[in-house]
Amino acid sequence: MSSIVVVGANWGDEGKGRIVDYLAGEASASIRFQGGNNAGHTVVNDFGTFKLHQLPSGVFNPDCIAVLGPGMVISPAPLSEELVEIKAAGVNVKMCISDRATLCLPLHAIEDTLEEERLGDGAYGSTRQGIAPAYGDRVMKKGILVGWLKQPEVLLERIQFMLDWKLPQLKALYPTFEFTQTAEEMTEWLLEVSAPWRDAICNVTEPLKTLQTQGENLLFEAQLGAGRDLVFGEYPWTTSSNVTAAYAGIGSGLPALRPERVIAVAKSFSSSVGTGTLVTAMAEQDNFREAANEYGAVTGRPRDMGYFDAVATRNGVELQAATEVALTKIDCLSGMQDLKICVAYEGEHCENPIWPQTAELAPIYEQLAGWDEDITGCRTFDSLPVAAQNYVLRIEELMGVPIKMISVGPERDQMINR
């Protein structure tokens, strides 16, 4: 039995979905343990190209149970829409949804949008899907649990309790706020929109424990990366949950989890969508962004592009307690003449380079030789150009853990295993 946790070493968008999809062929369960509809995991396989937002990326293995864990906030209508898309492609979905997960309601998305608009230039760069307000309600003990969808009388009671607390605050803070839906109407809508997957709601701990006892392989998946972790990330430009591997057991329903492998996924260059710091930002980004197709999977926003930041990535690898690294999109660097790696910072507080970066920092670069060859057909490390091999080996040296997977394209077979 093997438990593998796949997490991000950077700010998200590292290609975790691609790695999970690749590994899921040997897994009996693929588990999302945090986040919600703000995830955008792009998966390319024999079924087509998909941008998964709530379903775990292992959903395409017909023998793999897709588990939405208790650490998630679940948007009911988008989940139903996602299932329709996946099933239309011929995917047979086997699913378990935690009764302890939290519902993310349209009201939360309204609240999220109003707050971003109120903040103006100081906005957090939210996807406006309602993730932060949903997690906030859970912390304030006003959240709506997924399990209550199977108890309509409790669901109605808790929605009314939440509205009585929330609506006066929203009306006071946001002058344009209007919300006319009653608790009864919200309950009726939730029961209708959740009908396609309501039978999958259960205590997910039980089936996962059974699979553990049987020695089956379990695959755990996070969204975003270490730089966006609520506690250790670039606060306040973070997500609203814990994205580190240490949370995988709690967020999945297996608090005693001790994974055999923790794979920190890192992109072969730096990119970030949303608000925050990108120390290694490139002066000219547009052409590279287009070539690498670097746009937010949820928002479509262009990502900020930068050179590989070994300081931030090493920090992320350590925060994730990674046993190995998966390096993605190295094929996008073919033809780049100005290839370099940030190996240190200079400036105030540069000796303590942790998030948040509260002072102006300047990157100290190490120049490396580039390569012009198309490497998308390479399937072994030795078949890569020597310059590409040296690039990987230098990053591996700086990370302090082995790079065991190298992605040279989006397809399943475009993977080098070392």
Gap between N and C termini = 21 Å
Spatial strand sequence of the major β-sheet: 9-7-5-2-10-1-11-15-18-19
What are the segments in which pLDDT stays under 50 over at least 5 consecutive residues?
none
Query: Which shape, going by the Cα principal axes?
Result: globular
The structural class is: alpha/beta
Largest sheet: number of strands, sense, barrel closure: 10 strands, mixed
Tell me roughly what share of residues is in helical segments: 25-40%
pLDDT averaged over residues: 91
Number of strands: 19
Q: What gyration radius follows from the Cα positions, in whole Å?
A: 21 Å
H-E order: EHEEEEEHEEHHHHEHEHEEHEEHEEEHEE
Count of DSSP H/I helices:
11
Q: Beta fraction of the residues?
A: 15-25%
Structure in words:
The protein has 418 residues and is of the alpha/beta class. The protein is built from 11 helices and 19 strands. The chain has helices at 16-23, 76-88, 106-119, 131-139, 152-173, 183-193, 205-213, 248-252, 286-292, 310-319, 386-399; strands at residues 3-8, 29-32, 41-45, 48-52, 65-68, 73-74, 94-98, 102-103, 201-202, 218-221, 261-267, 270-272, 304-306, 308-309, 324-328, 339-347, 361-368, 403-407, 415-417. Strand 3 (41-45) and strand 4 form a beta hairpin. Helix 3 packs across helix 4 (131-139) and helix 5 packs across helix 6. The radius of gyration is 21 Å and the shape is globular. The model has no long low-confidence stretch (mean pLDDT 91).
